Amino acid sequence: MLDESGLDLLFHKARTPRRWMARPVEPDLLRQLYEMVSLGPTSGNCSPARFVFITGSEGREKLRPALSAGNVNRVMGAPVIAVVAHDPLFFEQLPRLSPNEELRSWFAADVGLAEETSFRNGTLQGGYMILAARALGLDALPVSGFDQSAVEDEFLADTGWRANFLLCLGYGDTENLPPRAPRLAFEEACRLL
After folding, report:
1. Which of 106, 153, 140, 160 is nearest to 9 (CA)?
2. Which PANTHER family match (predicted)?
Protein backbone atom coordinates (compact mmCIF):
# COMPACT_ATOMS: atom_id res chain seq x y z
CA MET A 1 0.00 0.00 0.00
CA LEU A 2 1.23 3.51 -0.77
CA ASP A 3 2.19 5.60 2.22
CA GLU A 4 0.48 8.92 2.91
CA SER A 5 2.96 10.90 0.79
CA GLY A 6 2.25 8.66 -2.22
CA LEU A 7 -1.51 9.06 -1.75
CA ASP A 8 -1.05 12.82 -1.42
CA LEU A 9 0.94 12.92 -4.68
CA LEU A 10 -1.73 11.02 -6.61
CA PHE A 11 -4.94 12.19 -4.93
CA HIS A 12 -5.17 14.11 -1.65
CA LYS A 13 -2.92 17.06 -2.52
CA ALA A 14 -2.85 16.75 -6.31
CA ARG A 15 -4.61 19.60 -8.09
CA THR A 16 -5.57 20.40 -11.64
CA PRO A 17 -3.56 23.45 -12.73
CA ARG A 18 -5.02 26.52 -14.36
CA ARG A 19 -1.63 27.93 -15.40
CA TRP A 20 1.72 26.39 -16.25
CA MET A 21 5.32 27.14 -15.37
CA ALA A 22 7.69 27.66 -18.29
CA ARG A 23 9.54 24.42 -17.55
CA PRO A 24 9.87 21.92 -20.38
CA VAL A 25 8.98 18.25 -20.13
CA GLU A 26 11.82 16.13 -21.46
CA PRO A 27 11.04 13.56 -24.19
CA ASP A 28 12.54 10.79 -22.04
CA LEU A 29 9.96 11.58 -19.36
CA LEU A 30 7.16 11.22 -21.95
CA ARG A 31 8.59 7.85 -22.94
CA GLN A 32 8.67 6.78 -19.28
CA LEU A 33 5.12 8.06 -18.87
CA TYR A 34 3.88 5.95 -21.78
CA GLU A 35 5.71 2.86 -20.51
CA MET A 36 3.91 3.20 -17.18
CA VAL A 37 0.54 3.72 -18.89
CA SER A 38 1.08 0.65 -21.06
CA LEU A 39 1.28 -1.53 -17.95
CA GLY A 40 -2.23 -0.65 -16.76
CA PRO A 41 -4.86 -3.36 -17.29
CA THR A 42 -7.25 -3.32 -20.24
CA SER A 43 -9.78 -5.97 -21.17
CA GLY A 44 -8.01 -8.80 -22.97
CA ASN A 45 -4.84 -6.67 -22.94
CA CYS A 46 -6.39 -4.87 -25.94
CA SER A 47 -4.42 -1.64 -25.31
CA PRO A 48 -6.33 0.55 -27.80
CA ALA A 49 -5.12 3.96 -26.59
CA ARG A 50 -2.92 5.98 -28.89
CA PHE A 51 -1.23 9.25 -27.96
CA VAL A 52 0.04 12.22 -29.93
CA PHE A 53 2.30 14.49 -27.85
CA ILE A 54 2.28 18.06 -29.10
CA THR A 55 5.35 19.88 -27.80
CA GLY A 56 6.33 22.43 -30.45
CA SER A 57 4.86 25.78 -31.46
CA GLU A 58 3.86 24.56 -34.92
CA GLY A 59 1.68 21.79 -33.50
CA ARG A 60 0.16 24.17 -30.96
CA GLU A 61 -0.84 26.62 -33.65
CA LYS A 62 -2.48 23.80 -35.61
CA LEU A 63 -4.40 22.87 -32.47
CA ARG A 64 -5.47 26.40 -31.50
CA PRO A 65 -8.48 26.71 -33.89
CA ALA A 66 -9.92 23.42 -32.58
CA LEU A 67 -10.03 24.61 -28.96
CA SER A 68 -13.11 26.01 -27.26
CA ALA A 69 -12.58 29.70 -26.48
CA GLY A 70 -12.48 29.10 -22.72
CA ASN A 71 -9.71 26.53 -23.05
CA VAL A 72 -7.27 28.36 -25.33
CA ASN A 73 -5.08 29.95 -22.66
CA ARG A 74 -5.04 26.93 -20.34
CA VAL A 75 -4.16 24.51 -23.13
CA MET A 76 -1.74 26.65 -25.13
CA GLY A 77 0.32 27.40 -22.02
CA ALA A 78 0.98 23.72 -21.26
CA PRO A 79 4.45 22.39 -22.11
CA VAL A 80 2.88 19.23 -23.60
CA ILE A 81 -0.58 18.65 -25.01
CA ALA A 82 -1.43 15.00 -25.51
CA VAL A 83 -4.20 13.96 -27.84
CA VAL A 84 -5.61 10.91 -26.08
CA ALA A 85 -7.04 8.77 -28.85
CA HIS A 86 -8.04 5.19 -29.51
CA ASP A 87 -7.54 2.91 -32.46
CA PRO A 88 -10.82 1.40 -33.71
CA LEU A 89 -8.74 -1.34 -35.37
CA PHE A 90 -6.92 -2.18 -32.13
CA PHE A 91 -7.90 -5.82 -32.64
CA GLU A 92 -5.30 -6.17 -35.40
CA GLN A 93 -2.69 -6.15 -32.59
CA LEU A 94 -4.47 -8.78 -30.48
CA PRO A 95 -2.65 -11.81 -31.95
CA ARG A 96 0.53 -10.23 -30.53
CA LEU A 97 -0.93 -8.77 -27.33
CA SER A 98 -3.13 -11.76 -26.38
CA PRO A 99 -1.54 -14.65 -28.29
CA ASN A 100 -3.32 -17.39 -26.36
CA GLU A 101 -6.79 -16.00 -27.07
CA GLU A 102 -8.87 -15.93 -30.24
CA LEU A 103 -10.07 -12.39 -29.60
CA ARG A 104 -9.28 -10.77 -32.94
CA SER A 105 -12.14 -12.48 -34.75
CA TRP A 106 -14.71 -11.27 -32.19
CA PHE A 107 -13.92 -7.63 -32.82
CA ALA A 108 -13.25 -7.94 -36.54
CA ALA A 109 -16.78 -9.34 -36.97
CA ASP A 110 -18.56 -6.73 -34.82
CA VAL A 111 -17.83 -3.05 -35.53
CA GLY A 112 -20.04 -1.88 -32.64
CA LEU A 113 -18.28 -4.11 -30.14
CA ALA A 114 -14.88 -3.00 -31.45
CA GLU A 115 -15.76 0.71 -31.17
CA GLU A 116 -17.23 0.33 -27.68
CA THR A 117 -14.22 -1.66 -26.48
CA SER A 118 -11.65 0.69 -28.00
CA PHE A 119 -13.36 3.80 -26.60
CA ARG A 120 -13.87 2.34 -23.11
CA ASN A 121 -10.38 0.92 -22.73
CA GLY A 122 -8.71 3.90 -24.43
CA THR A 123 -10.45 6.19 -21.93
CA LEU A 124 -9.24 3.94 -19.12
CA GLN A 125 -5.68 4.26 -20.42
CA GLY A 126 -6.09 8.05 -20.54
CA GLY A 127 -6.99 7.90 -16.84
CA TYR A 128 -3.87 5.84 -16.20
CA MET A 129 -1.90 8.60 -17.91
CA ILE A 130 -3.18 11.18 -15.43
CA LEU A 131 -2.11 9.03 -12.48
CA ALA A 132 1.22 8.10 -14.07
CA ALA A 133 1.91 11.78 -14.78
CA ARG A 134 1.26 12.67 -11.15
CA ALA A 135 3.45 9.78 -9.99
CA LEU A 136 6.29 11.19 -12.13
CA GLY A 137 5.90 14.69 -10.67
CA LEU A 138 3.90 16.18 -13.55
CA ASP A 139 0.58 17.94 -13.35
CA ALA A 140 -2.29 17.04 -15.65
CA LEU A 141 -5.28 18.92 -17.03
CA PRO A 142 -7.85 16.85 -18.97
CA VAL A 143 -9.80 18.86 -21.56
CA SER A 144 -12.88 17.89 -23.51
CA GLY A 145 -13.71 21.33 -24.93
CA PHE A 146 -12.39 20.98 -28.48
CA ASP A 147 -13.55 20.15 -31.99
CA GLN A 148 -12.95 16.41 -32.30
CA SER A 149 -13.21 16.36 -36.10
CA ALA A 150 -10.72 19.20 -36.48
CA VAL A 151 -8.21 17.45 -34.19
CA GLU A 152 -8.63 14.18 -36.05
CA ASP A 153 -8.20 15.91 -39.43
CA GLU A 154 -5.07 17.76 -38.30
CA PHE A 155 -3.31 15.16 -36.17
CA LEU A 156 -4.79 11.71 -36.80
CA ALA A 157 -5.90 11.64 -40.43
CA ASP A 158 -3.24 9.19 -41.59
CA THR A 159 -3.81 6.81 -38.66
CA GLY A 160 -7.56 6.17 -38.47
CA TRP A 161 -7.36 6.85 -34.72
CA ARG A 162 -10.24 8.66 -32.98
CA ALA A 163 -9.66 11.56 -30.59
CA ASN A 164 -11.17 11.20 -27.13
CA PHE A 165 -9.81 14.07 -25.02
CA LEU A 166 -6.80 16.34 -24.66
CA LEU A 167 -4.47 16.02 -21.70
CA CYS A 168 -2.22 18.96 -20.86
CA LEU A 169 0.96 17.93 -19.07
CA GLY A 170 3.68 19.91 -17.37
CA TYR A 171 4.51 21.64 -14.14
CA GLY A 172 1.54 23.61 -12.87
CA ASP A 173 1.71 27.02 -11.29
CA THR A 174 -0.02 26.35 -7.98
CA GLU A 175 -0.09 29.96 -6.75
CA ASN A 176 -3.55 31.35 -6.14
CA LEU A 177 -5.40 28.14 -6.91
CA PRO A 178 -8.97 28.33 -5.64
CA PRO A 179 -10.06 25.83 -3.01
CA ARG A 180 -10.71 22.32 -4.28
CA ALA A 181 -14.22 21.97 -5.67
CA PRO A 182 -16.60 19.77 -3.68
CA ARG A 183 -16.96 16.07 -4.38
CA LEU A 184 -19.93 13.79 -3.87
CA ALA A 185 -20.01 11.86 -0.61
CA PHE A 186 -19.77 8.06 -0.62
CA GLU A 187 -23.48 7.80 0.22
CA GLU A 188 -24.39 9.94 -2.80
CA ALA A 189 -22.24 8.18 -5.36
CA CYS A 190 -22.03 4.58 -4.18
CA ARG A 191 -24.24 1.65 -3.35
CA LEU A 192 -23.28 -1.39 -1.31
CA LEU A 193 -25.29 -4.44 -2.32
Report:
1. 140
2. MALONIC SEMIALDEHYDE REDUCTASE RUTE-RELATED
* Residue-wise pLDDT tens digits, 88-146: 999 999 999 998 878 999 999 999 999 999 999 999 999 999 999 999 999 999 999 99
Q: What is the pLDDT of residues 149-185, one digit of tens each?
A: 999 999 999 999 999 999 999 999 988 899 999 999 9
Structural domains counted in the chain: 1
Establish if 84 belongs to a structural domain.
yes
CATH code of residue 124 = 3.40.109.10
Query: From residue 70, how far is each of 64, 83, 143, 153 by CA, in Å?
Result: 12, 18, 11, 22
Confidence (pTM): 0.95
Residue 116 resides in a domain: yes
Give the max Cα distance, the chain.
53
